[in-house]
Design goal:
Rossmann fold, seven-stranded parallel sheet, binds nicotinamide-adenine-dinucleotide
Length: 249
């Protein structure tokens, strides 16, 4: 039995990496999915690849920092599929640089995509889920770096730490509406986000994970689908580490 049969999901940042693999896994589990991203080429190609007689996947251009865009993609999901059950607030960017040299422009860009974008996506999803009355599941992508510090990632640390506690706050606020809110907290995952990292740095990052390797995007996707499904029906406000033991040390 597929775990998401009849469910409708939006995946922000669904064109690439963790988002892409989550779209694939959700479709495998029977969901209809709207990919929300700024990468139109990859998003449209993925939607086309995954659409067949049984499954419909659509792409919608969304900059998660733009509230009108976010409201529009939620409306698209409801217009196209009749409701919204699952929102994966996943779009994000990496950000590196010494904190005493970080410009406010770079700080604001990271906070805006990685924290404001999650809030806006959750906000509009909650509206649709409340209207529908059937509850729902929101999953945010936080990070190990929302729990522990790292040098030269101040804005990223702040944004992801914000996502961790935003997750708890929304979970408490909307539990009465049967809307569960959780996050996944990946360790370092081998996605295009790590393209900026050289081989020596990759080796170092691998050494930080007790399992001795980077994670794969499909390993995050499986955790997201678990949290989205009824298998996680009593789990809300949880920030689930999927990090090969990184934060266990
Ligand atoms: N890769 C890692 O090691 C790692 C670790 C922990 C957390 N994360 C988090 O996982 C999430 C996904 O990252 P990934 O590794 O799959 O990277 P990725 O670069 O492969 O994918 C990110 C996606 O987000 C989209 N995006 C960027 N800005 C956007 C915006 N303003 N509006 C809409 N879409 C936007 C990109 O176009 C891209 O498709 C991010 O939130 C990231 O912070 C990644």
């Amino acid at each position: 039995m597929n775990r998401l049969t009849g469910k409708v999901a939006i995946v922000t940042g669904g064109s690439s990496g963790i988002g892409e693999y989550t779209v694939r896994e959700m479709v495998n589990e029977g969901a209809s999915v709207v990919i929300a991203d700024i990468n139109d080429e990859l998003g449209n190609t993925l939607a086309k690849e995954l659409t067949n007689d049984e499954t419909k996947v659509v792409y919608h251009h969304v900059d998660v920092t733009n509230e009108d865009h976010v409201a529009a993609v939620v409306k698209r999901a409801v217009d196209e599929f009749g409701k919204l059950d699952i929102m994966f607030c996943n779009a994000g960017i990496g950000s590196m640089g010494k904190s005493h040299e970080l410009s406010m422009e770079d700080w604001n860009r990271t906070i805006s995509i990685n924290l404001d974008g999650v809030f806006l996506s959750a906000k509009h999803a909650i509206r649709a889920m409340k209207e529908n009355g059937g509850g729902g599941s929101i999953i945010n992508t936080a990070s190990i770096l929302g729990h522990v510090g790292q040098a030269s990632t101040a804005a990223y640390n702040a944004a992801k730490g914000g996502v961790v506690n935003l997750t708890r706050g929304l979970a408490v606020e909307y539990a009465k509406n049967n809307i569960r809110v959780n996050s996944v907290c990946p360790g370092y995952i081998d996605t295009p986000m790590l393209n900026q990292v050289d081989d020596a740095m990759k080796k170092h990052l691998i050494s930080l994970h007790p399992l001795g390797r980077l994670g794969k995007p499909e390993e995050i996707a499986k955790a997201v689908v678990f949290l989205a499904s009824d298998d996680a029906s009593f789990i809300t406000g949880e920030n689930l580490m999927v990090d090969g033991g990184y934060t266990a040390q």
